[in-house]
Every structure is written in C-alpha cells, then in structure tokens.
Amino acid sequence: MKGYEYGNARLRAMRSRLLSRRELMEMASARSLPELIGQIAQTPYRKSLEVALVQTSDLESIYEALRCDFIETIGKIRAFYDGSERKLVDLFLRAYDNHTLKTVLRGLSHQVPRAEIASALLPTTDLPLALLNELLRASSPRGAIDLLATIRHTFAQPLLALRAAHPGADLFDMEHALDRWRFEETVKALRSEEENGKRVLDAQRLEVDILNLLLAMRFIHHPGERQALKARLGDDGLAGLLPGLGSLSVEQLNRAGAAKNMRLAVDLLSETPYAAALHSGLQDFERSGLLSDMERALQRYQLRWRVSQLVKDPLGIGVVIGYLALKTNEINNVHRVATGIEKKMTLDAIQTDMEFIE
Question: What top-level class would CATH report for the domain 1-81+320-358?
Fold first, then answer.
C-alpha cells in the first residue's frame, strides 16, 4: 500500500453501503423494538446484531451492535493505511482512545459495575481489550493510572504529570489533563506536516472551539458555576479550563462567557465562523431553555464541516475525516430511533431528532 489511494478507495466503497435517508426514516416508522431489530437485520449491521442478540435484550442489543460495528470500522480504517499515512490517521483517531480512557476513569471514579463500563468502551490498537479489562480491575482511577505507568503507556504521561503537580486532582482534572495533552501532542506532531497534517489540525481547532464555546455557554446558563470556578481557581475567567485554543481567543471566549444572557453572547460572537450555527441554536434554546440545543447546533456545524472534506480533499485524509463523520452520524441516528421507540415517542418527534446531511 502507498499513500491514501488504497485506503480511500476502500472507504468510498464503504460509504456506498451507509444507510440512506429513506432507510432510516423507515426504521423510525417501526412500531416496536422487535420490528426495528428485524429492519436492522436487513442492513450491514446484521452480523453485529446477531452476536449482540445472543448476549443481551432488545434495546441493549441494538446499542451493542452499533458499538461493535463501530469498533470494527475503526479497525478497518487503521488497517487500510501504513507508513506516514497510518501515523496521521492514528493521530486523528486518538480522539477515540482519549474518550475510551476517560470512560474508564469516570466509571471507576463513580464505582460503576465493571460490565456496565465495558459496554461503553471502544477498544483500539493503543487501548486493546486485554489492557482495558486490566484497567477495569483497578479499584480506583489511581490504580488504573498506576497500571498505565507500569507498562509505560503514552497515556500515563499527562496523568502522572497532573498527579505530581496536584496530588489531590479529581476526575474533572484528569479529563481536562487528557484533553489538553491530546491537543498539544497533535500540534507538536503535525508541526512539520504538509496539507494532510494541516487538515487534521483544522479538524482539531474546530473541535477545541466547540468545546470552548460550550464552556462559555454553560457559564451563562448556570451562573453558579462561575462562582464555583472562582473559589476553585481564584479566577472567574475561562483560561484555566480551556483544553486548548482554536480560532477563538481567550478574550473572545471570556467576553461571551461573561454576557448577561445567551442572546448577548451570540451577538458578541457574530464575527466568528460559528455565527450562523449559534443563531440557529439560539432560536431553539429560547423556545426550550435547554443548553443541549446550542450544543446540537454546534455539533451540526462540525458534522457538516467534516463531511465537506470528502469533496475538498478526495486524495488525502479528508476522506477519512468525512467518512467517519457520516458513519458516526448514521450510528447516532439509529441510536435515536431505538431510544425513541423504546420511550414511545411519536414518529414526528423521532424524525425531528434525527440529523441528515443534505
């Protein structure tokens, strides 16, 4: 294999097998979970679903099938590339490793049953199933970190540095340290890269911007958090909480986070690339009062940006970025359908909750 040609060709073939809007809408019309399972069994998810049905009940079997299919997808993508292309793909996929480790630490911190934590994990090359099972045997996040340190795993670095600087660091601190480390390591690794590296950096800057914007919005929606932050850090600004910086400056984020209401914050950000998404989210937020509406609008912006890379970078890593966005969105849509049917939501409510790229 050489370059992105082979892997991108395989991903284009996989893209052709993604569920269509019509198929997803038909799933939303299912009158029960057994009927939905019958429909899913006629799709590329059949193999994962058959395995899951042996182990668990109706709704959980759908969730498990989706999880296992995504794990298999990540494995395939990694195998499609080698050399410098594989390194760059792995760097982009590190976000899933980061999410998995945070899930382990969160579960151990809250003493969640081992099987329940395991059902949410995404084993990868850097965090294989055998290692994750060992981490789950730890009695606390500290024990899991000690194990990572013993085997000199790269993910131990930021957690050990945090422990040395703040011996009493809590779960929030650990998750923040992992996020900041991942973003900093990506920047360092891609400093000398050409176009494909810049595209991964752009994807990361967008991710950081959205995380930072949502943090600023939380300050407005939950004013008490600002006071808690001041007591914790001796400062009521955002700088100490940001996992990194993208295209938005600390000054812009602080001004938005200090706004008296959400509309004023959105107006302050009207000159940024996120203006249209924020105004769209604001309309829904003012009707519902739910911060999740602002989050949904920003995630929609990110989804569309990532999918656009399929066209903008057809010969590079843009195909990986775009395909994964489409695949993740498909899985989220099936998940929403299953959850909606379980909760006996109306067809209109389920279909409204779905996300499509036109």
Answer: mainly alpha
CATH assignment of 86-189, among 1.10.1040.10, 3.30.420.40, 1.20.1690.10, 3.30.1330.40: 1.20.1690.10
Sequence ranges of the domains in the chain: 1-81+320-358, 86-189, 196-316
Interior/surface letters 217-240, b for 16+ CB within 10 angstroms, e for the rest: bbbbbeeebbeebeeeeeebbbee
User: How confident is the model over 75-124, as pLDDT tens digits?
Assistant: 999 999 999 999 999 999 999 999 999 999 999 999 999 999 999 999 98
Q: What is the pLDDT of residues 167-213, one digit of tens each?
A: 989 999 999 999 999 999 999 998 766 788 999 999 999 999 999 99
